[in-house]
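Hi there,

I know you've been waiting on this one. I reran it after we fixed the sequence typo, so this is the corrected version. Both the input and the resulting structure follow.
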Amino acid sequence: MSQQHMLLGQAGVYRVAAELLTRGIRVHFPAVDDGIDLFTADGCALQVKASHLGVNRGKYGTGRRYHFAFRYWSWQAGRKRQNYGHLNDRVTHVILWGVDEDLFWVIPKDRLPSCGSINISSSVRCYKNSVIESYRQFENAWHLLQKHERPVSQPGAV
């Protein structure tokens, strides 16, 4: 991952945190990045993705769109490993930030497509162009975070 992508990703985390705070939703930053970017005081575990508008010149036509890929880094046996197409199991919501138009999509994890990425132009599409549902229902859907129930703590969990 290039430094420019890392900086964009971190800018996205802070932009989403600022948006949540202005809406009265308290956020916490994890000490270690293991695929969760932010926690809310109400128990949501958030993965933030940021993207600039790009030009799509693929077999599905030409147009401008945001491309969001799902992956996270983990450590196993002392080695850093990229988990492409997956999210940390504890993630409850993914927040997508379209940088150029300052747009947000708040998507519950169980409503994400099974493919490893989403392109957003006029609809949410899997990389292989299977339309799952209109993205408009998730645009600025911050209320989805306020309805989340606090997870039940596991015995022995810290």
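Quick highlight: The first strand starts at residue 27 and ends at 28.

Best,
R. S.
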